[in-house]
User: Fold these one by one.
Assistant:
Number 1:
Amino acid sequence: MDPGSDDFLPPPECPVFEPTWAEFRDPLGYIAKIRPIAEKSGICKIRPPTDWQPPFAVEVDNFRFTPRIQRLNELEAQTRVKLNYLDQIAKFWEIQGSSLKIPNVERRILDLYSLSKPEPTEEDIEKNPELKKLQIYGAGPKMMGLGLMARDKTLRKKDLFLTALDKEGVICPRTVLMKEEPREDGKLMSPLPREDLNHSGEPCTKMTMRLRRNHSSAQFIDSYLCRICSRGDEDDKLLLCEGCDDNYHIFCLMPPLPEIPRGVWRCPKCIMAECKRPPEAFGFEQATQEYTLQSFGEMADTFKADYFSMPVHMVPTELVEKEFWRLVSSIEEDVTVEYGADIHSKEFGSGFPVSSSKGSLSPEEEEYATSGWNLNVMPVLDQSVLCHINADISGMKVPWLYVGMVFSAFCWHIEDHWSYSINYLHWGEPKTWYGVPSLAAEQLEEVMKKLTPELFESQPDLLHQLVTLMNPNTLMSHGVPVVRTNQCAGEFVITFPRAYHSGFNQGYNFAEAVNFCTADWLPAGRQCIEHYRRLRRYCVFSHEELICKMAAFPEKLDLNLAVAVHKEMFIMVQEERRLRKALLEKGVTEAEREAFELLPDDERQCMKCKTTCFLSALACYDCPDGLVCLTHINDLCKCSSSRQYLRYRYTLDELPAMLHKLKIRVESFDTWANKVRVALEVEDGRKRSFEELRALESEARERRFPNSDLLQRLRNCLNEAEACVSQVLGLVSGQEARIETPQLTLPELRVLLEQMGNLPCAMHQIGDVKDVLEQVEAYQIEAREALASPPLSVGLLRSLLEKGQQLGVEVPEAHQLQQQVEQARWLDEVKQALAPSAQRGSLVIMQGLLVTGAKIASSPSVDKARAELQELLTIAERWEEKAHFCLEARQKHPPATLEAIIREAENIPVYLPNIQALKDALAKAHAWIADVDEIQNGDHYPCLDDLEGLVAVGRDLPVGLEELRQLELQVLTAHSWREKASKTFLKKNSCYTLLEVLCPCADAGSDTSKRSRWIEKELGLYRSDTELLGLSAQDLRDPGSVIVAFKEGEQKEKEGILQLRRMNSTKPSPLATSTTASSATSICVCGQVPAGVGALQCDLCQDWFHGQCVSVPRLLSSSRPTSTSSPLLAWWEWDTKFLCPLCMRSRRPRLETILALLVALQRLPVRLPEGEALQCLTERAIVWQGRARQVLASEDVTALLGQLAQLRHQLQDKPRLEKPPTYPSAPACEPHREGCGKDMPKQVPGLLLNVDSMTSHEKVASVQGSDLEVLSSLLPQLTGPVLNLPEATRAPLEELMLEGDLLEVTLDENHSIWQLLQAGQPPDIERIRTLLELEKPEHKGNRTRGRDLEKRKRRRQQKIDLSRKSKDLVQEELQSKKARNSEIKPQGAQQEEFEEETDSENIFLTSIEHSPILKGNKNSFQQNGSGSTVSLPSLTPLLHQPYPQQEEL
């Protein structure tokens, strides 16, 4: 069978063992147990229990190593022989300046080594596949020199040539393929497909040749003779050898050379001598790169993945195995791998945790650090022989580490001294093993020597070098039994003594291995020393020294080990006697003692066999540098026997003494066993004391006797005696010790007494146990009498119970006494808990009593009390559930229902938390109702804040309150009124509250404070005007306080605005071209100083502002003509009045709108601070209105108004040249009609022009232009004043104007006074121009926006009308339903009516005569020229009318 073929057949599997945890705890014991089965295979695999997983303890970051380089085809023995042969013939031709080219047959290199054998027969051709290939394909011209061609005529010359070489002792191989290819550069191109060719230790010299010719010296002529033909003619064809200086004709050589070769030339004799030089011993070279575990793993995984073209974990192990044996058998493919083998764990750290002083281990690591399966611990176990060797032998006592990659291999070998070995794979891919049992070890050696004799000729101990593989199929074909296994991570592989093993790695992994020796190894170890002696191999340690060291201290040996050492020692002593007798017969009589263990090993090795001597050695006085063992006494030196002397460690008398000690150690177990047997079985009738038995057990432990049934019986007896003594001490010791010690029952006490009597040792404590038993029996009689008598008191029962507890023994009667004591105690607790005078206990206490009662023994009284307690708890829990439901239910119950529940629960003698919570809630409800009654029956309507507080409290109470709904309706109505009032007064996104707007601004005199207050309001950091008025929350509840504070605030506001006007009038005008330096300057609301044309001055506070930052009047909406006005409007009627946002804080509704709010306020049964403030504001407005009317009705003012009316009539009656232009975007406005925006009346003014100076063409041109252009063009023509106002008339009007501007109400009188004051002064051209400039950006899209606005207004009005109709229908239906369900009108109807009345202001603006309140006390005045009459009511009766009578809730 061809071992290199692809059909590799895996050998059978080795035995696999899976120990239990009990077996796993004794490693060497388990190995001894499986040895009869496992050693038949040579190797075996052990799988530990699944939860035995030692942590990996190597410091990965610091672990660095340099691996070995392995070329796979150099590992296999037969392949190495072929490669060595190819090296020789390649060297042969290289020396001659030619290169070797091997032909390919069937795409494979021809096996030249197989062809180099003697002349093949037909049978050989059939067996040898390489010869068969040649027979099939024919030899061809390249087969010259292979011995397969017919001999030609040059046979005689060839024989002559070979004869000449034979005389020189050189034999030329005939089966060599030679092809001459001289090269000019002298280099050799290797034909082998390998990276490196190492031929020998010496480098090959470059071939040269030298031709001597034309020498005239006669003395050299005779030396120039051919070594073949012995002639010197044709010297131009003579070659001179560079090695031996011999001469040869080129035509005498075989084969003859056609011409003189170039370069260095050597003769056939020198060539053969060079080729026959033995090669150097084969070994692995170290890599140059140092690796860490990570870098090596990355390299290994990359190599495997690239080689097999698949992920590493998916490559089958069978595929890797076949590929490995194919590669090692191939001479063509050269695959190189690296193997981190034989890494010293002492230097780099073991993979197992190791106990050391450097650092502490965790409990888990400590467990594995002391485990016998830890490879650092196993060699030094007590049953191991190696623990008696002091030195740390690396690889044997100290583990080695192995870092493998795919195809990295370990070759066939056996362990040093034929010891055991154990290998553990920490992690990684599997490791494939092959093993041969020890019985077939010599057979394996013979097969390998037979198949590769060339290797063993140069290296007799080749198998000990761990560098040679051979295919298992080849060994099996020659009858060698081989087994295999795949070792996975977490598994052990054990090899037995002299079991050859080899293998390779399936991929990247990490393993650890060590040797160990047991007692059964000792015979194999002795045979190994004899084997080493024959091979002349060095020993790792001295076997004799190990035996003697163990024999010197037999008491420290395990008994089984002592027996094995005794046998070995006996054989060793007999052999030593025989050898010393032979030495004496030789005539050596001198001797001296030598402590060989103190000498280094190299100073006590035999010169002949290299064995390490210990018992004795032969030395010579004249040759002090060497010595021999007594087996080779004739190989020391040639000196006389009298000069030789014996160096010995022990005399022949000391050796038997040591043997005798071993014998005593072996026989001591029998003596000890007899003593124990007599003591345990009381054969002599005498019981031994406890101390005597303890001494026998200590002797077994000290002498390290093996575990046996007898020793286990002794230990059981001692443990039983100790337990009895401990129990007796607990009985007879003090009271404290008895309490801590578990009490014995009476049967247990009797058993203890019987047990002590049956023990094989004398127990003097047995008398104490008898005394305790008598006390217990006496107490038992007393307790029975007490239990049989009538019921005793609790005190007497407790005294009896305590007396029994002091005995330290559980008596059945004491248990009955305990039950009665517990029953009486529990009944007393129940009686006290349910007593009427006692404080009520909680449900938890009652439940605890019930649980305790369930645990005590049953009796009639206990059962009755338990039933009553259970019934009480059931009732209490039911009422608790009712109370909880009332507290948590969404539908609240009225107070009457809750009072009924509480009255019923009062009869239960248990504290109920929910009932108590219900009581508290009911009490709060009564207090709430009392508060409601008090506030409703007061002198005034309740304040809204008080009602809101009551509503919030009432909603949180779990009680159904009828008054709560009425309060909620009142609060809701009040909020609705406040919201309506806010919409009426407050601007959009106003920073003021309604109350602040209605109250006067008390600090109006300070420009800084007023402006800062406005900014604070914008930022939300402000105080209300009510605070500035000095009103507290309590003051707001008193109407009188509000009125007084309001009056005082009015006066402060007036004084403040006058002061502010005086201060602002001193400030420089932004419109002036040059201003004087002043410390006070105007500041706009934006925070900047207003300047330029766009600045406007407030007519009230006289301060300046940017026109873009504030709301300004619109001229275009006020200057448009109507059908009743002049096309040229009067400038004094233009809307040029400007009030800043600091002075005009609200929308300033008309007085009629405010009266509607007051009517709705009179219907509210609630007092609001805003209502009080609104009444005060309205009264203030009416008072001012009366004063204004009085002034306007005076003769002087009436005359002035008549002049203005006459002037307006003149403008209206003026004939027009053409129809005036219309402005569809501006609605027609009537004088005194209420306006929008600021609610200012938009009177239709006209422009007063110099009419006589304008032609009709100019008039037409002016009206055809745009609005802004027309107004701008007419500004230079405005003249004034048009009225002459005396100072006596102007002053009252200005004072009224000031007070009217302070009012947050729109009044027509205010506008009339404004027109009079405007007409009495020149027109403010700068303000008009500023207003026009501000209106220009908005004028561009006014028309489009106006049309869109009209459409949106119409659509919005339609939606409002539709919603009002539907709302009215729904409200009517709801009211009819409520009227049917209740005789009293619901409170909600008040709110609905209020909403209907206040939903729109138009209902109060249609006609004054429609309001019954406004019919009386009317004052009217007629404006001259207008013909319109304005009727305004007097609101004094309305303001001073008391609130309607309060309704009862």
Number 2:
Amino acid sequence: MEDGYRLRYPVSGRSRLILADRWLFPSFKGDITQKGYEKKRAKLLARYIPLIQGVDPSLQTENRVPGTSQATAVVSKQQKSHSTNSRDERFRSDVHTEAVQAALAKYKERKMPMPSKRRSVLVHSSVETYTPPDTSSASEDEGSLRRQGRITSTPFQSHSNVEPWLNRVIQGSSTSSSASSTSSHPGGKPAAASSTATATAAATVLADLMAHIQLDNHSAPPDVTTGLMEHLHHERPQVASVRGVPRGYNSSILETGDGVPVNSRVSSKIQQLLNTLKRPKRPPLKEFFVDDFEELLEVQQPDPNQPKPEGNQMNVLKGEPVGVVTNWPPSLLAALQRWGTTQPKAPCLTALDTTGKAVYTLTYGKLWSRSLKLAYTLLNKLTSRNEPLLKPGDRVALVFPNSDPVMFMVAFYGCLLAELIPVPIEVPLTRKDAGSQQIGFLLGSCGVTLALTTDACQKGLPKAQTGEVVTFKGWPRLIWFVIDGKHLAKPTKDWHPQLRDASAEIAYIEYKTSKEGSTVGITISHASMLAHCHALTQACGYSEAETLTNVLDFKRDAGLWHGVLTSVMNRMHVISIPYALMKVNPLSWIQKVCSYKARVAVVKSRDMHWSLLAQRDQRDVSLSSLRMLIVADGANPSKVCVVKVDGTPYLCKADEVGEICVNSGTTGMAYFGLLGITKNVFEAVPVTATGVPVSDQPFTRTGLLGFMGPDCLVFVVGKLDGLITVSGRRHNADDVVATALAVEPMKFVYRGRIAVFSVTVLHDDRIVLVAEQRPDASEEDSFQWMSRVLQAIDSIHQVGVYCLALVPANTLPKAPLGGIHISETKQRFLEGALHPCNVLMCPHTCVSNLPKPRQKQPDVGPASMIVGNLVAGKRIAQASGRDVTQLEDNDQARKFLYLADVLQWRAQTTPDHPLFLLLNSKGTVASTASCMQLHKRAERVAVALIEKGRLNAGDHVALVYPPGVDLIATFYGCLYAGCIPITVRPPHPQNLATTLPTVKMIVEVSKSACILTTQVIMKLLKSKEAAAAVDIKTWPTILDTDDMPKKKLANIFRPTSPDMLAYLDFSVSTTGILAGVKMSHAATSALCRSIKLQCELYPSRQIAICLDPYCGLGFALWCLCSVYSGHQSILVPPLELESNVSLWLSAVSQYKVRVTFCSYSVMEMCTKGLGTQTDMLRMKGVNLSCVRTCMVVAEERPRIALTQSFSKLFKDLGLSARAVSTTFGCRVNVAICLQGTAGPDPTTVYVDMRALRHDRVRLVERGSPHSLPLMESGKILPGVKVIIAHTETKGPLGDSHLGEIWVSSPHNATGYYTVYGEEALHADHFTARLSFGDTQTIWARTGYLGFLRRTELTDASGERHDALYVVGSLDETLELRGMRYHPIDIETSVIRAHKSIAECAVFTWTNLLVVVVELEGSEQEALDLVALVTNVVLEEHYLIVGVVVIVDPGVIPINSRGEKQRMHLRDGFLADQLDPIYVAYNM
């Protein structure tokens, strides 16, 4: 087979081993000395190679491996040593094996580090595979294959040298990683960091290497808040409060049209048309920027070394003409009648059992009489509603096991006599047989309603509770009819079948399964059947009464042609050898040839190899009677030609491999019911190079690849189904299997079971190799074998393997005769249902058609940009909320500059007015505070601070309280005393080790002179457990406020200026940076006023808040707004939802709240926790129709899928579809957008995700490829101005252009507060000016990317409404291949890839993309995810994933706002603290 392929695809045998040194330090051009180089190299490798002097000299840099040019260097006999009892001999070729061993000899024997795998994944569950008779290649005693729970942890010391491994890492032909062995812990708690220094070390060296060899080593975007980098490693988020429920789901996209309110009455079709018309068709002007969003994948260039065919154009070959036979019957049935009546005692068929004994011999007389009975019964005795069930021409399914050829033959000829069309199929064993659904589709398309079978077979079929045979998946409803003798009626004397001459009408339908797994029925006419028998009789020289042994499947292909049709034509005696007997005794066919003195044997090459293996012990076997051995892997054509595989069927040249086409009266006619593909396959017209047809008769494409040799010989080199085209070069799957088997003949692969197929990823075929590994193979063996297979295939075929997976023995889906069901294996691979025990992805070597990395264009000057904006008709992207100075309101509070004054005024004018109401988990009121109560409590706190704490005005005070009224009272107490409050989340008692260092850090960084807290938390801060996490001796003064004396404050502190500091707001950003911002008294009042105006808050209002009160807008709503506006706040601590999920929604319903605020984590808990309980809530009287606005407080892009599923889920409880919206704030301004009660509904637009990567916004229609829905982040608050600025030039951008959101507002924070006083570093975050245009206004830079878009809607003032769309944080973006990616987009794709992915987070690590996936399912599925994750990221984002980490649910840290803490995750990964289930390094 290989030799045949060499005509077209010679092997260059060139070794592609590249040595590490070139890559480690790519041409330093003189800036490093030799000595420096050696020192650097030794330092890099020192901890992996303790004795670097002792390195094998053959692997040192000087001794380069010469690239040999011969394809097959001769290997010594010792190296060859074939293990004979070992591999699947179908693929055996000594030449091939030598070539593979020679290729491998060039790669030195070396161990490779392996991916880390948890122990529980190593111990695979036993594979109790039910092996029914005749269907499996595995013997029955090999059911339980529990693998040894060994951990093969390979410390680096045992590796003689790491350098060759590094070479391969760089070259990319194999995986790399560390062997970390961690044990699994119950409950999914992360294990204590296991002793895997080597893991991190290996990973680090890898990362360094990858960093060196990246072509486009773009630096990561600068950090917005780097002042606290030293403290980063302490900071761990408090996950406990929000990780109570599993997360991750995906939902469809919002219905809101482009700028269309949800409640719009306009027809969506008309609206769509209007939107299309108003959208500018003309692309922006080219002269002002380069239009680079059209990413073109690299076009594969033809291989220059590929040989061109040089021979002449071939001619059509003609077989010898069919001879004239005088007494040749006019049809096959006529022959049956003749032998059945004239030679009734002649044996027709002998069936054997699994021991090799003859069970039954069917004579021609019996075959004729039984077939007649069956034909009569089918036509006359089966009725439905007094009508005959069948009429001539109907299709009937034949369902017979491979052990019962006798009944099959009776059924087949019975159908032909009744003029019914038999459709032979396999026996279905379970409801989920491999390929069974496709068979069902074939039966349905053929209109089959009746299935014939035997009594024994019918009893073995799975039954429903009614006792009837179940309806198999995808099958039509069938009537099952048993054809054993007692069920058949004797024909009446006047009934005779019509024996017509062979015509073009359909005789039978034979099924064929394509490469993709779809099943089609090929129709064979009576004339073709007769002609085929004639041709085979002549070609094989059959004569009357000869004996033939048949090992093949008698239901289709050559087994049917020789053993059922041609044999009857010639009155031959067929000995049918069942597959189950061959499994037990591979020699049985030879023994039967000997005992029956058979003249002809029909076998497959596999049967010959099996028998050769078992042959040695046999001395008394004689094959002298055998005149012909037919190896049935081809066809018997008459006119033959070879045509090009793709496109128009041009004739090939003499030395070119193509598809074999035949023109003969013996072929099938059509695919049943499929006219389109019938024309292509059965009516092909081969043409010459000039386009002239070679014949006026159509040819049939055989699906066989081959060429014409000398003396009119036809050489078959493979099947079209096994053809894989990678980067324009063709490879044969069987050849790849042969190479893999030649690597380690059978020492490793279980029974030689290897499947090779291709999957399409990123517009090209990628080779996937799946092998069953022997139960006794160790982890080390697996990776040793996998790396060698990769090298061998790379060297012999010069193609990379995309994925190599190993599955436990006996688990791949089986074809009817025990082989691997390739299309089903491929389907399982793509669905993530293969459950491999080892997997190796090599996308770096295979994927060569990625788009070119983006080159940043030189900056365009400001003048041309402004002109460009005007010429292109773009307005500058600028928008503002309502003007506060123009808004008249009779608000007394605005007379006061300071919140402390407002509280005193309220305590005097409305002392008993309730401001706060705190609920506990039961939904009952835990505590309340009226204006006077709050004032009095604040006074007591102020007294305690001055007297007990001895604090002065301006001192900083940390407030460490659980969410509640105490926190609010102590905040105002600090203002009364002139101190600066800092709210701090208390440490979690069960998780002090990670939460207490955060508290300590905020206290230190904020320079707090005192801590106010409760007695319980005070004890916790000074406890032994706390001492283990932090230095408790360095706490400042700690005061508890539980029992404070009732003292009146002498005088309340009054700030000298509104610009004085009111409080500090500390928060951990999603990038893991702790940043405190300074809020002045003026900004605090302005913030409260803006929110009051936007939400129409006044004393008679009630709002419900389910947020954490420690920072940002959550703190402002919880502590500030009620005091300023006088409304009552119903406080629901999010922590309480863990014990009562419905608490928040019940409170909203109970108090008939119109405005409510929550976080994404709260919304997610409700969606998941209450998804199935809406009916129960309705019965309890929960009604959400009162809610006008439900706002999600967030500092991120709106999560459309979550808000939408929340709206849909609680629609039944009366929640309006328009109610849910989002807010947007950030560190520099905690409230920029907030939907509020008036104004148009939030709009949704769809943008092209590819354009976003280039910092461009391109609006597309909903549902178009690569479209991403973005929802407006609420309305811009009164007094707030927003502009979109270029991230680098700091110039203003046009409408619908992506840039950084800058904000100008009276409630902007005044700056960062850091311990090192590094405000100067970030001065431009708060005092930025545009580089041109309006250069006077002072703006604050939010650090978020977004765009403004003017909509068709009008806002309250009658102006056209400007919508702000937030795309994502600039700090979080990943710079890869010169493009800007938002982690959330990659994560959304990954979560969609498999049902068991609960959550995902991505980050980069020295230019490698790391994907961390939470597995919500059995650990068996862990390795399925590796390929799916790699595929989806390649397909949708054109990125190669470097590392895939599979972890338990709850490992990805989430902050209180529900945002992923990706940098903490990265730290945990690098410190090896994640206790992963599996880590795969895609190298």
